[in-house]
Write a structure and sequence with these properties.
The structure is a homodimer.
Chain A lengths: L2 E4 L3 E4 L11 E11 L1 H7 L7 E2 L3 E7 L5 E7 L2 E2 L5 H4 L10 E2 L12 E5 L3 E3 L6 H4 L2 H13 L7 E5 L3 H11 L4 E6 L2 H7 L5 E4 L8 E6 L6 H8 E9 L7 E3 L2 H5 L3 E4 L5 H10 L9 E6 L3 H9 L4 E5 L3
Parallel strand pairs in A: 11-12, 11-14, 12-13, 14-15, 15-17, 18-19
Antiparallel strand pairs in A: 1-2, 1-4, 3-5, 3-9, 3-19, 5-6, 6-10, 7-8
Helix pairs in contact in A: 4-5, 4-9
Chain lengths: ~325, ~325
């Protein structure tokens, strides 16, 4: 099968062996895959991953007889299903988990990938592929509300105008009284406008005292700004996975009794439910370009130069 | 009146002017005051405070005619009483607050101090002064349960065998299934033993996966250890106010979706209620020595050399 592989280097291969479904797992014929910032990091060595890349996809389950079944998206953490974490519904934190295209499991930039049946979520017929393929990062935005429910009167600041920042801002703008997206790029902020969402450039003055600050800048420096903008006893959602060390005093976190919570992967049902409630959410604005899978190297090159999403068309 | 002052230097003065009670405030005749690590930091320049030191005390309200009234302890943050924070019951975070002996308000290492009437909490007759004077740090330990209620089945690790670490460990040992106090000093750990509390030396192997880790080491390095020991989706209470910058990657906080909450001052009612429930709590073990107020310099010298509490006897 066609596949995008990272071993010594990033490569497109036309003749990769197809994966077999283990018991309880399913084969999925991938229609479209997205290139995520994590993929770009893996190509630089993050996680030490080797194999087929990709963890954002929409595709069709393959029936045992090979016929295409339901259109699905898939949660990326393949959990053991029996440990304490799994019993708590936290398969995303199963210590034995493998992660699609990130850790110990070949990814979805291929004609076929495999995942546990329990990970697959049927996509409503009315949801186009180009929206469905964004369910993974959208669900990661929705996860903030799973971890930190809002009652609706809050003032929220989202730092970072990348894809995840925009998705967080859009989701939270439907759940809080006032949401301001803060970024460094006027053109990205212009793209973010939707409903009541406000935007501000990072060097403009921004009123502090937010109830919730989302740190999605992707840089270690974002946290210090988040701490400045958060009210006493407020909360900061830390979305940036930054390998570089933070260097800052956390004394203000203690003095102001701020709660800082790390936030990573969400539940796809939450993302799908949110999309069903807000069919006008402008997800397509996040898509910069699409390439057939055999032009994956060009696609990765473009993805590295844009903060928007580049898609790979894989199957029909 | 007799008082301990920090201006250019730490000084005992026998003839300081007595403070007047503003409307709604009360004069308190101080019986005993405690020397806290924060006092030692202030003497090194922390907070830029100048004035009468001290924020831990037990004393008697002075009636308008000058007669001694109820025996009280006092919450240290004098709030404005009318702002949004105060309306939420968070006077501890009032932006206009002054803080006894720490910020814009003369402290309690004097024969008389003043505080808002609302800050004063009557001490039960059966509670000796030497326990009552420890209500402030004890309440700071109880505050962890205000911010992060436990259901009783949790495994907890407390890092740091200073006074606050011991108090946190004692309080949490009455609320969780298993509490381990981790410290560097065998003699302090030996003093900590009470009820079901376990102790471990910092260089012993400690099983990770704790539901809650309390970081009370007083050093910036403690947080990295806390992150290692906390389970995915677990919580870390950050008690150390460290001015030095932390230097660590918070990526594990994101990947494991850990919640980190700063924790500072507690409510005295919580500390008093806890002491009433656990009259055998060995608070007296925390007291190393006592000095009359006119030997305050010697007392501070000893306090700087011990992790235990040094008291000042001020009034009868």
């Amino acid at each position: 099968m066609k596949a995008v592989i990272f071993d010594e280097a990033l490569r497109y291969v036309p003749d990769q062996a197809e994966p077999e479904a283990r018991p309880g797992w399913r084969r999925i014929r991938v229609t479209t895959a997205g290139i995520c910032k994590t993929d770009l990091e893996i190509v630089k060595g993050y996680m030490g991953f080797r194999g087929i890349l990709g963890h954002e996809f929409v595709g069709r389950i393959e029936a045992p007889d090979g016929r295409p079944g339901a259109r699905v998206v898939g949660e990326i953490n393949a959990a053991c299903g029996v440990c304490d974490r799994c019993a708590q519904g936290l398969g995303r934190h199963c210590p034995k988990r493998s992660t699609l295209g990130i850790f110990n499991l070949d990814g979805c930039m291929a004609e076929v990938c495999v995942l546990p049946a329990a990970n697959l979520v049927k996509v409503p017929d009315e949801l186009p592929d180009d929206r469905a393929v964004l369910i993974e990062p959208l669900s990661a935005a929705c996860e903030i509300l799973e971890q930190h429910p809002l009652r609706g009167s809050e003032r929220v600041i989202v730092l970072g105008d990348g894809k995840l920042g925009l998705l967080c801002a859009w989701v939270l703008s439907t759940a809080a009284a006032e949401v301001t997206l803060v970024g460094k790029h006027p053109e990205k902020l212009a793209q973010a406008g939707w409903r009541t969402l406000r935007t501000a450039l990072a060097d403009e003055p921004i009123a502090p005292g937010a109830d919730l600050v989302v740190e999605a800048t992707g840089s270690a420096a974002g946290l210090a700004r988040a701490i400045e903008l958060c009210r006493p006893r407020g909360a900061i959602a830390l979305k940036s996975t930054v390998a570089a060390p933070h260097q800052l005093s956390l004394a203000p976190v203690v003095i102001n009794e701020i709660t800082l919570f790390g936030s990573r992967c969400g539940q796809f049902q939450d993302g799908l439910a949110w999309l069903a409630r807000y069919p006008d959410a402008p997800l397509e604005r996040l898509i910069a370009a699409r390439y057939p899978i055999d032009q994956a190297l060009e696609a990765f090159h473009q993805a590295a130069g844009t903060s928007l999403k580049v898609l790979l068309d894989i199957g029909g």
